[in-house]
Amino acid sequence: MEEDIIVNRVAQSKLITLDVDALLPRSEVVHIDILDFSDGGLLREKVFREKVKNYAWENHRSKWVNLWCSEDMIIPLWAYMILSAQVSSVGAGLVCAAPDKAESEIIKAQIHQLDFSEFKDKPVVLKGCNRPDVGEEAYALLAAKLTPVVRSLMFGEACSSVPVYKKAKK
Questions:
Q1: Global pTM value
Q2: pLDDT tens for residues 26-57?
Q3: Nearest-CA neighbor of 157 among 121, 130, 133, 123?
Q4: Residue range 80-118, pLDDT digits in tens
Q5: Alpha-carbon gap, residue 44 to 50, rounded angstroms
Q6: Strand partners, 68
Q7: CB neighbours of 164 closer than 8 A, spacing ≥ 6?
Q8: Pairing mode of beta strands 16-19, 123-127
Q9: d(C-alpha 74, C-alpha 105), whole Å
Q10: Which residues of 124-143 are buried (b: 16+ CB within 10 A; e: fewer)?
Q11: Residues near 133 by Cβ (< 8 Å), separated by ≥ 6?
């Protein structure tokens, strides 16, 4: 009697799976309210610099930091720059967004840091059906970054993907 052997053709293929979950922040996202560095809702440089100097930046080492402001106030560009310098000094990632948009901004930042050369002329499936909350902008950005380098791009799972792009044969 001949046994039927189940062969996993997906595992044997040259298909590369890029999982959007891998782009999600792995550490805590720290939300820093710029209002906390103000002087009664005004950003005065001397007071601002003193508060920045005394802030416990070390607590955010290797975390993602989101700069935002809980009040509608005028924030000079130098304030963002001073805060960004402090965040980068502890090796943290940085985004500036409303707290409910920070994760999406982090994902976009992660996409911009990816080395897409590893996908050159390869078939790629962008896995993300389980992450509808990631947002369409991240998927559109990934498609825009992948299309110039991949042989083909699909969306979904390797076993049931939707074709997105296929490089024309020369």
A1: 0.80
A2: 888 999 999 999 999 999 999 999 999 999 99
A3: 130
A4: 999 999 999 998 899 999 999 999 899 999 999 999 999
A5: 10
A6: 33
A7: 126, 143, 153, 154, 155
A8: parallel
A9: 22
A10: bbbbbeebeebbeebbeebe
A11: none
